């Protein structure tokens, strides 16, 4: 047995980097030769064999199994024994802080519980009009249901055209589950008591809330099942192995469940609001980020196995090289997500904190559990394409990405100009983007509450189903007189009173979501502006305030995200030019994806607008996650440039990372597209924008534009840092 041990003052490592060394033996090579009874024909720098003590402990022969299985066991026990955190939801959870409609809702909390939420029962004639006999039956049914208010002949009001009738039924306030149960019981009773020739439906605020909750019944399980299936399929295609894909999928799947527990427990501990969509988005993010990190690690590990016989030594190098990029990426994403804590909307703050916890969990499982688990298995885990010592590495193979790099290198200016032109063309749609979905556009599949509201608007004043609420501690009669004189008000009705607070229900003349209705809200607010503690709330007012809150969030949070990403790249690369170029490419990707998505939404999909939260969430995920792939590419380029110069180093980095980053990007895009399985428009829109953006970033920007820019700038790309052979 012979071990090649160099004791000269300096040699070159296999990457070509010249390293200074003192004399002595390389203990890792010696141990490898002893344990594997094999020849080591590669020169190793002693510095390459001094990994961080924690890294050595994670993948050591005696301790790897602890790091592989103990976190997995702890996660499973946490799922079984602890479960997800719980918190009582409040009407304020989704309202922007300190705006008029939010203050109205806060004041409403002092009112008696009765009538704090209502359902509107709609009866429509299947043919003709509602006759007198049927109206008497409806009044009896309405009284039994506890309907409030009264028409000339009872609690039921009949439309002028005689084809429809309504009654307002109070629904006891409480949690979303309580409201859903009440509405379900109401609908069941309506089905049992509806007279022949009539159809009964429930709409109004309580029914809309119940239908929104119903959207998420079993939705997270469906989302998890579809996400896991998509990830499994893409992993099989990527690795072309019937075995290997199971390991990362198992690790990321358990990480996802542990992240859901950890995140919701943290939110509950700090009393931060979250809603039904939070865990769904968290799951998608953990699967996407965790699988990306796993792909990067496994790709580097496979490459190192072609150089080193001992798999523990191969994983030592792979983990050390991967950890820098993954930690830089995860830190950037976490910092970006934490900027959502500055949002004025409580559930948005909860989403940011939950997803930040999820990314930390994903990075931990990818850098601790996965390498420890992989190293326990032999090379056979890669079957049938088992890496063998002496095979060519990715950077040296005549691969597709090697050929792409060669073509870009011949005409970098042409490729850069063409890519920028394409991104600019797609970005044109960004100038037409408008935000603010009407209530009937919030669902991909129209629920009963929305269809009933649309039918009701054909026979009754537009705002009758969901009146605007004016809440005050002033004299209610004085407030009523002021409101009645406001333009756009159809009628004012007294509401509940108690504890010095009174509520007025105001029916607007304009259609919900129309400019006329918005002007009516503005007129009411102007009319009551001089009255003490008088606020305007309700769905229409809340929609106006949501737009104002979203605009404020974009102004504050978007520049902060950019600043944090730029600062992270400056620290990581110790360069000025490269971070500026990378951030510019990410901004171009965002603009192009928003423009392309807008044409898709308003064209084939038929939407009139984006939800208020889409621009912010899409920007956050695209910038934070999009910069990941640039980090993966440029950290490898920096490594390769040390031995081969900046030009060849970038091309070698593209050849080495092209396949894995493209696979990771396609996988991440597919995972976010899975949000479309939830029948809520905002999630489908967010998922679509991110899917388009990630595909643009991985298939075009990172493949063509970034390498072309680096080749054009040469050494200036890394300025003021010096890189080169």
Describe the protein in words.
Belongs to the resistance-nodulation-cell division (RND) (TC 2.A.6) family. MmpL subfamily. The chain is of the alpha+beta class and 725 residues long. Helices cover 60% and strands 8% of the residues. It has helices spanning 27-36, 53-58, 64-82, 100-108, 132-145, 176-193, 205-215, 219-239, 246-269, 276-305, 311-338, 346-376, 400-410, 412-427, 448-459, 476-484, 515-527, 539-573, 577-602, 614-673, 681-713, and strands at 10-12, 18-20, 117-125, 157-158, 164-171, 198-203, 468-472, 489-498, 501-508, 534-537. α9 packs antiparallel against α12, α18 runs antiparallel to α19 (577-602) and α18 crosses α20 (614-673). The longest helix is centred in the last third of the chain and has 60 residues, at 614-673. It is elongated and about 95 Å long. The relative contact order is 0.11.
